[in-house]
Amino acid sequence: MHTPxxxxxxxxxxxxxxxxxxILNGLYPPESxxxxxxxxxxxxxxxxxxxxxxxEKLEQLGMVEKRPNSGSYVCDLPAxxxxxxxxxxxxxxxxxxxxxxxxxxxFRQVIEVYSARRxxxxxxxxxxxxxxxxxxxxxxNLDDTETVSRLNVDLHTDLNRLSGxxxxxxxxxxxxxxxxYYMDVFHRLPEASKDIVLHYEKLVAAIEAxxxxxxxxxxxALLCYGHNRVKDAAGLTQNGKQVRLRPGSVKKRTKKDEIx
Length: 260
What we know:
Low-confidence stretches: 248-260
Oligomer: single chain
Strand order of the largest sheet: 1-2
Number of helices: 12
CATH superfamily of the largest domain: GntR ligand-binding domain-like
Radius of gyration: 21 Å
CATH architecture of the largest domain: Up-down Bundle
Number of domains: 2
Distance between the termini: 37 Å
CATH class of the largest domain: Mainly Alpha
Strand content: 5-15%
């Protein structure tokens, strides 16, 4: 275990996140017993009161449960955890198993295909002008990874807004920080920015034509393209691989770096 470095964060929260990462990374599988409060206090060199606060946070997230006269045990996360855990991981996590991130990408595809279909029904003329303007800015900044990544996120934010579904917008916001980072990874891949802009032009044309089925089809195609490029580049198909959720040093890839 290690305590994530953030001097402004409450100590019990830092310890809670450290144990959380150990659980998510498989150090403590479901139904396993966590070390006692005393052992954890010694390990982290803090009081048992601080450890108790950390464990209460994990209980609130549905990650552990206290059993009388026995200790704290890891829960079956799919059965017990809630959206609060997802938000916690997205906002504070350092890395997750590749399978988790692939599941997140799959879920994103479900909600954004729906959003594209709804956008074709709901978008006003002003909305369409705004999306066209964003795409035009992307085309002018194909070699500026930071700018084109930001514009990409802005475009998806608008599309999810046009779904008219508040829950979708809140869910998208909950993992926007991670999505932003992986957009940066995507736009560093050869020809990725140029290719995705062509998809977006088709998408907005379908929305303007009020063709909701074709809009959904184009969105699914562009998401599959983007997800597959990122999966290959980040090695997400490798079982057990840990994937960073925060920016690090990302080298711009060239054609010779492409994975066959």
